[in-house]
């Protein structure tokens, strides 16, 4: 399963000296506090945000994700 890597997004934004207010403006959010909720994972990013986000962070869309490996035990617990 592919999951957004919020820590990568935050680290990359900081490395590139992009403020949360700038990110909010680029992605079309009302303000920095709204953007922060996306960056922290409180809100889910929409698919249409990903190209702008990757472009701004100078990375590929795939770089925004990590693969979550689900063990057979977890899968078995969910089907019981």
From TrEMBL:
MF GO annotations: DNA binding
CDD domains cross-referenced by the UniProt entry: HTH_XRE
Occurrences of domain HTH cro/C1-type (ranges): 9-64
Name of this protein: Transcriptional regulator
Species lineage: Bacteria, Bacillati, Bacillota, Bacilli, Bacillales
């Amino acid at each position: 399963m592919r999951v957004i890597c919020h820590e990568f997004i935050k680290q990359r934004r900081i490395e590139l000296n992009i403020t949360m207010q700038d990110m909010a403006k680029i992605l079309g959010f009302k303000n920095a506090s709204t953007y922060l909720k996306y960056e922290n994972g409180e809100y889910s990013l929409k698919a249409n945000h990903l190209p702008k986000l990757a472009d701004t962070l100078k990375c590929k869309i795939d770089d925004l994700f990590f693969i979550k490996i689900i063990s057979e035990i977890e899968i078995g617990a969910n089907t019981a």
